[in-house]
Amino acid sequence: MFRMRLERSETLKTQGRRARHLRRVIGALALIFVPVFVAVPIGVMATPESIRLPQAPDQEEPGALFSHWTHGQYGCFACHPGIFPQRKMTFTHDEMDKGLYCGTCHNGQSAFAPDDTDCETCHRE
Ligand code: HEC
Ligand code: HEC
Ligand code: HEC
Predict the structure, then answer these.
(1) Which CATH code fits 50-121?
(2) Which of 24, 34, 45, 63 has the most CB atoms around it within 10 Å of its CB?
(3) Segment 29-69, tens digit of pLDDT
(4) Which residues line ligand 3 (CB under 6 A)?
(5) Distance, CA 121 to ligand 2 centroid (Å)?
């Protein structure tokens, strides 16, 4: 009789310990995942579908139009922050011909080269 009660209180104690352990694990997981669930949608919502790159001072063509949508096969880190810093910037065809900026991929191998392509493909209204 006495022993049985002792055993029961032992089981209750272990259960209490398990429940506390579980709560701690869930708490830790929430600490890790809640910020990710909040941050990822904010990052995606803040991503404009297309971006007009600033024109060079004496450029007649409209500033090149870049589309995140048509580059959706890449993860963000393919371009940010290594190739593009996520702020308005401009650069020249000479730099692209050297394999910088858009020329990292638009080099005639991974993707069409700027100089062999209709200007309007990029410089469109
Ligand atoms: C693959 C996309 C792409 C194509 C195709 C392209 N450009 Fe550009 N061009 C750019 C980007 C990006 C810039 C930098 C942002 C800006 O100034 O519009 C640029 C910049 C320029 C500039 C100013 C800087 C510089 O290098 O003098 C001129 C002028 C220009 N382009 C003319 C042309 C002409 C003319 C053609 C067609 C023969 C052409 N571009 C085709 C993407 C392109
Ligand atoms: C193929 C290259 C490429 C990929 C992949 C890419 N971006 Fe961009 N992103 C650009 C370019 C080019 C710009 C304009 C130049 C700049 O702001 O650095 C830009 C600009 C931005 C900006 C600044 C917009 C503004 O108004 O100035 C944000 C935010 C951004 N990208 C978020 C993202 C996110 C999030 C992803 C992944 C889902 C992503 N980008 C994937 C090329 C890319
Ligand atoms: C990480 C590699 C990468 C970078 C950086 C990149 N592109 Fe592209 N882009 C591609 C690929 C791949 C395609 C599909 C090419 C094809 O169909 O030949 C493409 C397609 C395009 C197209 C045709 C689809 C459309 O949107 O109409 C345009 C225009 C274009 N890129 C412009 C740019 C400009 C402007 C930049 C720089 C601001 C740039 N890209 C930077 C890889 C890249």
Answers:
(1) 3.90.10.10
(2) 63
(3) 777 777 666 666 556 668 999 999 999 999 999 999 999 99
(4) 64, 66-67, 70-71, 74, 78-79, 83, 101-102, 104-106, 110-112, 121-122
(5) 19
